[in-house]
Amino acid sequence: MTEISASMVVKLRRMMDCKKALQEANGDIEQAIQILRKKGLATLSKRAERETTEGLIVSKTSEDSKTAALATLCCETDFVAKSEDFVAAAETLSDYALACSADEDVENILETTVDGKKFSDILSEIASKTGEKTQVGDYAKYKLDGPGLIGTYIHFNRKVGTMVLIETSDDNVATSDLLKQTASDIAMHITATKPLSLDKDGISSETIEREKAIFAEQVKNKPPNIIDKIVEGRIKKFYEENCLLDQKFVKDDSKSVEQVLSEAAKQAGGKAKIKRFARFEVG
Description:
283 residues, alpha+beta, Tetrahydropterin Synthase, Chain A, GTP Cyclohydrolase I, Chain A, domain 1, 3 domains, three-stranded antiparallel β-sheet, 10 strands, 49% helix, 22% strand
């Protein structure tokens, strides 16, 4: 039995849509094009309430390596996410993400123009082709103002991706192969460990109080002074598990992420510090 690919289904759907539009326009090609465009926009509004839990993550780094962008293109089914048209649209999204003048907010990407075309128009086109709601889920762009590098990592399934901005003491440290590999390893680490923040200052006081209350409840039958010590110890462990700098490095759990970066930078002849990171996941 012949295998029916996603692209074949998409092409057939496109042909049927074109035939209907030509019939409606009495054979006028220009009018048919306008009908298809209008239907594409109308279809988007009808799909507004559907969930987009599938899709792809893309990233792109500028030629000078000083800017990098990370974004997600989402759809309704894995079937469409693997189609040629959707994959092509996702790759196009990476160009728009890097070209976007703003560093965040997906609405800014939709209004970004490349080669005279807004990304919102591309979304309309891909939705019309696939028959599914399609949207940009997340977007972030990092820029270096001085010496440093931006590490990126996208998991093999392209459903989890990270970006980490690292400042260095000079350009020689930033361009060393060791620092480049370390930045990539740390980005990979972030995809696996899902840190809540860079350090403990990034954890809200509400979260800490909630965790303390849970820990205290778990040992409520112990003496008060013992409870305080246990809670203090568990909060410390909470930081180690959820703050990137304090987390045990996945490739060497005898060291923290901060130690791994510091040692790599020292070997490269300088210093390095993680300033921020982004982690996106589809689904």
